[in-house]
Inverse folding.
């Protein structure tokens, strides 16, 4: 059916006489800083002119975009999922490039600026994104790593990107104003299925329309199959605002309060301090119960906090340089265990108070779920016991962690994959035979839920952790480019965006693990050196684009990622020294299939060599 444009117009004006021809109009008045009223008009238009245009135009999105670009405007298009943003961006980039007015829309200097200021800074190249960006178009979704998303945002803010495709990642929280906002779809992919967009998200998206200082009016369009469906959506009431706090969030906030007080010089935090914070929260105003005793008990059991007797507190200065490493005061103040926690919480006026431990401080500093911090603690202690030939079994308060027979990179990957931060990213495969073979090859390296693996009785959640660990480990150890097709057939449920999210989260958690290791392990032992060296190498391999250990030296060079490093290694160039050798110039050019690229990379390698 012909597409009907449904328009939502946001206007800044002092007049109320601009809602003619509106089928449905809703005005909301707010007072600006100058004392004048600002009217926010939502108007739905169904004119013959619009439906005729949709009938006669082959590509409505390009038609609308081009009209806006001609007036020196920018377009922000929201669509359903990652694949849609990329495919539509490619089509619009093609239309842009083949437009007879392309040189007017994007000058040669603009293209060079995009290449030099944005594309060249990408640590990991994305050919599809690059092809779109040099034509003034880009896409933005959670599947891109943080650096690429930031570069796309910066290029758009600088006016070098004329059309930006996005999932809901730019609906709220990022100030990227546009002349025209288009909703190509009123649904989005939530990771499992399509879900209808909320009215609140829709209005947030509309709020991107109108560039301050450039325009007094912004336009938002819905690409709808009929005016009726668009009207039904726009006339929906706003959803009720509800607190997003979960039990994990409440425990996290409790620990954050104790850390915040320590940072500002308040040595200890009382139950009353925590109670005052929660009683002023939106969560409490919604009528939800606050159970401080439960939150403190969890934190105490996870070694995140210690209990101090107010009449005999430890002589620790919260402002001193030793604070972060000197708050472990479990000893005599914590001998009472759960009973002491209950006693301290029961009476808000008691002299007992709480202070943060070294583990708790690092957990909040890295913004980790406390359960993840506890998991990392147990993982490190189990690793240390493996190197020291001792036995460790965790309490099983959260996940049971035992000493493995040997420690490898996989031991860390598999354990960290159980973190709460990975909960929505883990998936299973359809190949149980491969899973059983992987378990057989690596059973000695597993430290979480060992009994399940020994008995071959994995729960569905454990299978997800295993399969995601398999995919991540195989990606990290991919031998050559030709293996990619086989890899994708083994893990069809893991898309490019899934791996980008896994990579980002793993890099973050490995960094946090390194920091926590410094405060809970004995820094003078050989095991500490072994553990931190393994974690550092893993961090470097992930940051370089999921590469094997022997590719790290090449991947440190600007413009070399996993694919180019593999191509060079296959051609016999395995080190920085070989790369800068003049006798190997032809080999490098042949491997990279570009003389210009080879010259740039050799220059970059020489600069790296000079630094070392």
């Amino acid at each position: 059916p012909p597409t009907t444009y449904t328009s939502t117009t946001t206007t800044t004006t002092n007049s109320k006489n601009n809602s003619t021809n509106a089928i449905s109009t809703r005005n909301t008045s707010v007072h600006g800083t100058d004392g004048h009223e600002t009217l926010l008009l939502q108007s739905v238009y169904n004119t013959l002119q619009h439906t005729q245009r949709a009938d006669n135009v082959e590509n409505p999105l390009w038609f609308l975009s081009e009209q806006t670009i001609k007036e020196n405007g920018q377009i922000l298009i929201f669509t359903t999922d990652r694949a849609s943003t990329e495919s539509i961006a490619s089509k619009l980039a093609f239309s842009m490039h083949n437009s007879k007015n392309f040189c007017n829309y994007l000058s040669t200097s603009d293209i060079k600026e995009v290449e030099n200021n944005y594309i060249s800074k990408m640590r990991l190249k994305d050919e599809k994104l690059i092809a779109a960006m040099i034509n003034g178009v880009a896409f933005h979704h959670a599947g891109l790593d943080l650096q690429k998303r930031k570069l796309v945002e910066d290029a758009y803010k600088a006016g070098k990107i004329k059309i930006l495709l996005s999932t809901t990642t730019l609906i709220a929280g990022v100030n990227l104003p546009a002349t025209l906002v288009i909703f190509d779809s009123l649904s989005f992919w939530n990771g499992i299925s399509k879900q209808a967009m909320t009215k609140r998200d829709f209005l947030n998206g509309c709020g991107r329309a109108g560039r301050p200082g450039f325009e007094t009016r912004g336009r938002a369009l819905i690409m709808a199959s009929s005016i009726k469906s668009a009207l039904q959506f726009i006339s929906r009431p706003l959803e009720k605002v509800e607190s997003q706090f979960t039990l994990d969030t409440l425990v996290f906030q409790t620990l954050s309060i104790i850390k915040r007080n320590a940072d500002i010089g308040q040595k200890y935090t009382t139950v009353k301090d925590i109670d005052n914070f929660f009683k002023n929260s939106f969560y409490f105003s919604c009528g939800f119960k606050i159970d401080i005793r439960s939150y403190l008990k969890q934190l105490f059991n996870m070694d995140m906090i210690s209990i101090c007797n107010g009449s005999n507190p430890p002589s620790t200065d919260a402002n001193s340089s030793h604070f972060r490493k000197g708050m472990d005061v479990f000893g005599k103040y914590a001998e009472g265990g759960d009973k002491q926690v209950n006693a301290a919480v029961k009476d808000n006026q008691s002299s007992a108070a709480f202070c943060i431990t070294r583990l708790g401080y690092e957990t909040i500093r890295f913004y980790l779920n406390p359960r993840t911090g506890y998991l990392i603690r147990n993982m490190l202690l189990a690793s240390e016991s493996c190197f020291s030939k001792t036995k460790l079994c965790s309490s099983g308060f959260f996940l049971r962690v035992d000493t493995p027979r040997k420690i490898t990179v996989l031991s860390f990957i598999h354990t960290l994959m159980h973190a709460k931060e990975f909960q929505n990213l883990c998936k299973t495969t359809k190949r149980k035979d491969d899973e059983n073979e992987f378990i057989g090859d690596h059973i000695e390296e597993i430290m979480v839920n060992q009994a399940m693996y020994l008995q071959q009785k994995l729960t569905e959640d454990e299978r997800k952790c295993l399969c995601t660990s398999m995919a991540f480990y195989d990606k990290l150890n991919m031998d050559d480019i030709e293996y990619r097709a086989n890899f994708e057939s083994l893990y069809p449920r893991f898309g490019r965006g899934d791996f980008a999210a896994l990579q980002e989260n793993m890099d973050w958690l490995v960094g946090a693990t390194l920091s926590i290791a410094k405060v809970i392990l004995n820094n003078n032992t050989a095991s500490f050196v072994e553990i931190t060296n393994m974690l550092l190498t893993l961090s470097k391999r992930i940051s370089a684009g999921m590469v094997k250990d022997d590719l790290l030296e090449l991947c440190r060079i600007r413009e070399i990622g996993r694919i180019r490093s593999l191509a060079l290694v296959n051609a016999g160039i395995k080190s920085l020294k070989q790369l800068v050798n003049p006798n190997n110039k032809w080999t490098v050019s042949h491997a990279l299939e570009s003389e210009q690229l080879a010259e740039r990379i050799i220059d970059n390698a020489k600069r790296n060599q000079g630094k070392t």
User: Anything to note?
Assistant: The two ends are 64 Å apart (CA to CA). Residues 7 and 221 are 5 Å apart (CA to CA).
